[in-house]
Amino acid sequence: MDNTNITILKIGGSVITDKSADDGAARISEIERIASEIAGFEGKLIIVHGAGSFGHPQVKRFGLTGKFDHEGSVITHMSVRKLNTMVVEALNSAGVYALPVHPMACTVSSNSRIKSMFLEQIKEMLANGFVPVLHGDMVMDTEIGTSVLSGDQIVPYLAIQMKTSRIGIGSAEEGVLDDKGNVIPIINNGNFDEIRAYLGGSANTDVTGGMLGKVLELLELSEQSNSTSYIFNAGNTDNISDFLKGKNIGTAIGTGTIQ
């Protein structure tokens, strides 16, 4: 299949759930708004969404970061599936032929890093006009038993394997912010050291590294694939549709420039 024009859109868990909740609390109106913005996009698209309050509190409750627990693995997986079903149903209601792809069923990690992911079904979905929707999940792990796989790790892996052309990271921030709250327009290896101090974790329970984790994953991606990713606020109306229309918004990470 022609992989040249695949876009990956990550939708942060903090945008589509109340991340401060102790258990899964979806923001249904936000999910529906985002689905309607995506509906106007004609190209090949892979969506990855975060787990938010459907994953992070459960991981914390069962201590699943680097530790194996049968019950915690099952409960966390079933919880994130619920959120994924809501996202997929909203997309289909908006006219997007979305299908769920659960990482638990197609991914194996080793020490919490992706070792292999079965991608053939994703390629066939794209070739036949479907939109695959992946999410943060628990996955089998050759070293630990199971481990947390964040959407922030799925995005760069897919971007390299599928040779995607554009990557958008829809978060709850306007982009990456400096100490005065201003958006940093571009981050690359040249200025990363000086802005690292501004990159804290997430305001709520985030077991996957917050903004610093996102930026590190995307910087590594830019080195491996010569690609540019954009971190922007998916909570602002029209930002997702603007990104999908080709506008460069928020903070660019990698080799590209803000236009």
Which structural traits does this protein have?
ATP binding, 259 residues, 4-stranded mixed β-sheet, Carbamate kinase, alpha/beta, 10 helices, 12 strands, kinase activity, nucleotide-binding, globular
Strand content: 15-25%
CATH superfamily: Acetylglutamate kinase-like
Quaternary assembly: single chain
What number is the mean pLDDT?
Answer: 91
CATH class: Alpha Beta
Estimated structural class: alpha/beta
CATH topology title: Carbamate kinase
Largest sheet: 8 strands, mixed
Shape: globular
Gyration radius (Cα, Å) is 17 Å
Order of H and E elements: EHHEHHEHEEHEEEHEEHHEHE
Distance between the termini: 30 Å
Q: What is the number of independent domains?
A: 1
User: Under the CATH scheme, which architecture would be assigned?
Assistant: 3-Layer(aba) Sandwich
Spatial sequence of strands, sheet with the most strands: 3-6-2-1-9-11-12-10
Uncertain segments? none
- Count of DSSP-assigned helices: 10
Catalytic activity: isopentenyl phosphate + ATP = isopentenyl diphosphate + ADP
Site (Transition state stabilizer): 19
Keywords: ATP-binding, Isoprene biosynthesis, Kinase, Nucleotide-binding, Transferase
Domain Aspartate/glutamate/uridylate kinase: 6-233
Describe the structure.
It is built from ten helices and twelve strands. With 259 residues, the chain is of the alpha/beta class. The chain has a single domain, classed as Carbamate kinase. It has an eight-stranded mixed β-sheet, with helices on both faces. A four-stranded mixed β-sheet has the order 5-4-7-8. α3 (56-62) packs antiparallel against α4. The longest helix has 24 residues, at 70-93. The record marks 19 as: Transition state stabilizer. Homodimer. ATP binds at residues 10-14, 52, 210, 214. It catalyses: isopentenyl phosphate + ATP = isopentenyl diphosphate + ADP.
